[in-house]
């Protein structure tokens, strides 16, 4: 936050809209499927694929639920976590992975958990292979971490 506050708005600038969010009122999100678009507030139940009007979305959600072993209407809150997804499809930067490595350093991923490190582009994926902090991300437990690319063309 301190660094962010060093970037003040230009004096006299006007805005089309001002939006204030109270982070205490935001609900954490979790994914129930196989892509970030299958996210939902952690307090809600898994949606029924039949609730989607688009046939391809209905099919994708049905396939994801079968793959994940989940049922429509089932809550995810309290459901055991077996895979942790660390990454971003949108605006993922090398600094994101550096910060993740800093937070993970000295810690281990539990034996029953798999961690996927997913840079948002091929460019970001290629860079960490040259860095010591990549080893930090890959050696955090018996399952290590798989380095893959999300939402990016080869």
What is the structure about, briefly put?
This protein is α/β, with parallel strands linked by helices and 154 residues long.
Can you characterise this structure?
The chain has helices at about 1-5, 55-70, 95-105, 120-125, 130-140; strands at about 30, 40, 85, 115-120, 145. With about 150 residues, it is of the alpha/beta class. The protein has 2 domains: about 35-75, no CATH class; about 85-145, no CATH class. Strands 3-4-5 form a 3-stranded parallel β-sheet, covered by helices on one side. The protein has a two-stranded antiparallel sheet with strand order 1-2. The protein is extended. The model is unreliable at about 150-154 (pLDDT under 50).
What features would you highlight for this structure?
154 residues; alpha/beta; 2 domains; 5 helices
Please render the helix and strand layout as text:
Blueprint: H1 2-5, E1 29-31, E2 39-41, H2 55-68, E3 83-87, H3 94-104, E4 114-118, H4 122-126, H5 132-138, E5 145-147
Parallel strand pairs: 3-4, 4-5
Antiparallel strand pairs: 1-2
If you compute it from the alpha carbons, what radius of gyration comes out, rounded to the nearest whole angstrom? 19 Å
Q: Structural class from helices and strands?
A: alpha/beta
In sequence order, what are the helices and strands, one letter per element? HEEHEHEHHE
Which spans have pLDDT < 50 for at least 5 consecutive residues?
148-154
- Average pLDDT taken over every residue: 78
The largest pleated sheet is described as: 3 strands, parallel
User: What is the count of helical runs?
Assistant: 5
Q: Quick one: how many beta strands?
A: 5
Percent of residues in beta strands? Answer: 5-15%
Question: Which range best describes the helical content: under 10%, 10-25%, 25-40%, 40-55%, 55-70% or over 70%?
Answer: 25-40%
Distance between the termini: 35 Å
Q: What spatial order of strands do you see in the largest sheet? A: 3-4-5
């Amino acid at each position: 936050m301190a660094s962010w506050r060093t970037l003040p708005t230009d004096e006299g600038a006007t805005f089309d809209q001002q939006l204030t969010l109270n982070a205490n009122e935001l609900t954490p999100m979790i994914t129930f499927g196989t892509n970030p678009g299958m996210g939902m507030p952690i307090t809600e139940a898994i949606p029924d694929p039949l609730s989607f009007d688009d046939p391809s979305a209905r099919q994708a959600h049905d396939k994801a639920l079968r793959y994940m072993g989940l049922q429509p209407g089932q809550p995810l809150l309290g459901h055991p976590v077996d895979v942790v997804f660390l990454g971003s499809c949108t605006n993922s930067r090398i600094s994101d992975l550096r910060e993740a490595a800093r937070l993970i350093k000295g810690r281990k991923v539990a034996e029953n958990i798999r961690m996927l490190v997913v840079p948002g582009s091929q460019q970001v994926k290629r860079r960490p292979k040259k860095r010591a902090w990549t080893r930090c991300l890959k050696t955090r437990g018996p399952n290590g971490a798989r380095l893959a690319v999300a939402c990016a063309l080869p």
